[in-house]
Structure formats: C-alpha cells, structure tokens
Amino acid sequence: MTTITHEQIQYLLDENCCHECEGVGKDKVCVRIEAIAELPSRFGDFHIIAFWNNRDGKEHVAIIKGDVLGAEDVPVRLHSECLTGDVIGSLRCDCRDQLEAALRMIGQMDRGIVLYLRQEGRGIGLTNKIRAYSLQDQGLDTVEANLALGFRDDERDYAVAAHMLMSLKVKSIKLITNNPKKIQQLTDHGIEISDRIPHIMEPNEHNLFYLETKAAKSGHMIDFRGKEHFVEQDDRPIVKGMTEHQIKALYE
Ligand SMILES: [Zn+2]
Ligand SMILES: [Zn+2]
Q1: Of 20-24, 49-53, 108-112, 178-182, which range is least confident?
Q2: Phi, psi torsion values for 230, nearest 5 degrees
Q3: Which range is least confidently modeled, 17-21, 81-85, 144-148?
Q4: CA 173 to ligand 2 centroid distance, Å
Q5: From ligand 2's centre to the CA of 133, what distance in Å?
Q6: Does residue 148 lie within any of the structural domains?
Q7: Which is it for strands 61-65 and 112-117: parallel, antiparallel or unpaired?
Q8: CA atoms of 182 and 235, how far apart (whole Å)
Q9: Scanning 13, 42, 65, 104, which has its CA 20 to 30 A from the CA of 20?
Q10: Residue 81's domain is classified under what CATH number?
Q11: Which of 65, 55, 57 minimizes the C-alpha distance to 28?
Q12: Does residue 41 lie in a domain region?
C-alpha cells in the first residue's frame, strides 16, 4: 500500500497557499488546503486534511487513505457532520453507523476519501437541529419539523465537495452512495464519476428499524420507539436484509 509522501504533502501545501480561482457553482466556492497530518485510527491509517473556504467559515476536512493524488476511480464518501450522532452516539439518527461503515470500508481499501462536511443537521446548524428534535418531541413529524426550520442549500455543499476533490488532484471517483441522483450533482460541478459503490451497513441493534418498518412513508422510517426517524444524512444506507421495496422507498 502506498501512502502520500512528505514531498507530496509539501507540494499540496505550497500550491494551495496562494490558490485562487473563479470558484465552483453559483456561489463561486473556492477552497484551499491548509494543513495535513497522519491520522492513525481504529478504522485504518489515514491522513487528515483541513480546508479553508471562502463561503461558510467552516473547517471542512478530507480523511484520505493511501495515495489519491492523480489517482483514478478513487472511492469517495460524503458525510455531513452530526455532533449528536457522530460523537455522542445519538439514536435519533444513524449518522454514526453510516460514518463508521464508510471509514471501515475505506480503511480496508488501498485508497479512498471521506469528505467530512461541517454542515450540522443538514446545514441548519446544531441549535436549529435541536429545535427540530424538540418539535418532534412535541408531536410534529420530521417533515413538519424540517419545514418549520427551513431547508438547507444543497447546491453549496456539492460545490465545496467538488472543489475539495479537485484540490486533492483526484482524476475520477467511485461515489459511495445508494442514490444515483447524487452523481449528477457532483458531475455538474466538474467531477468525473466512473462508477457507484453501494453503501451497505451490517444490521445491528440500533438500525433494526430499517428492517422492521413494513411500509415506509415517503422513505421515512419509524424508529424502534415508534417515532419517525430524523433524516440527517441525505444519502441513506442500505442495511443488509432490507427488501427491494424498502430500498426503493429510501429515495422516493
Ligand atoms: Zn479555488
Ligand atoms: Zn445524525
């Protein structure tokens, strides 16, 4: 297995320190690599790369496995930050399971990238997400709770992700997703996608609701407490054992 070298790291940092471009997407998003370090983890040996961007003041990061510079067909997963799920292990969503499945998958590959995008609660922010949970506690369903809080700007997220991949000199990617529509959104921002890798998770005590929900209501799953499951990641996993009907319902 090859990893990126100190020379490659220095090259990226030198090139990015003065990077300017016309930007990606309607918001003209531009990013720069600011810092790179090794990141040994329980899921494998990675490098972590911190980015600056000209739009949202958030510190988006790439977690990379192996040598991705100039590489083709690099497996890539986009993950949106979820403090309550990723860090605290909340069961109101399945973000942590999704993130761990992606890191575990890529950690075992020769090369791959997780883009960890700092857009808590699908971009509405932590406080608003907790407001949405609260509305749900008071009986609103997730659709109503989201409506009450307003929707996110999807377009900008894909522009940031696209530019991050360009900064990493990736020639083409295999997007880890179950949603074929996502491929178009990244392609529109100039990313070459050579293939799609299904995102599949092992069943566990926390995601059993995926398997047990008989009729998904517009792709919304009822969790094991009988509450509607909050959908924070816009790219939902397949759990081994799901029926064709359940898989199809995820994206309706
Ligand atoms: Zn740029
Ligand atoms: Zn979450």
Answers
A1: 178-182
A2: -75, 130
A3: 144-148
A4: 25
A5: 11
A6: yes
A7: antiparallel
A8: 8
A9: 65
A10: 3.40.50.10990
A11: 55
A12: yes
Q: Which ligand has its closest atom nearest to the C-alpha of 81?
A: 2
156 is catalytic: yes
What distance in angstroms lies between residue 8's CA and the mean position of ligand 2's atoms? 34
pTM of the shown model: 0.91
Residue 159 lies in a domain: yes
In this model, does residue 214 exceed pLDDT 60?
no
State the total domains in the chain: 1
User: Per-residue pLDDT averaged across 216-236, rounded?
Assistant: 69
44-53 β-sheet, strand order: 31-41, 44-53, 61-65, 112-117, 74-80, 173-176, 193-197
| Measured distance CA(65)–CA(45) in Å, rounded | 7
Q: How far is CA 91 from the centre of its chain?
A: 18
42 is a catalytic site residue: no
32, 92, 96, 156: which one is catalytic? 156
227 found inside a domain: no
Residue 176: name the closest of 89, 104, 83, 94 by CA: 104
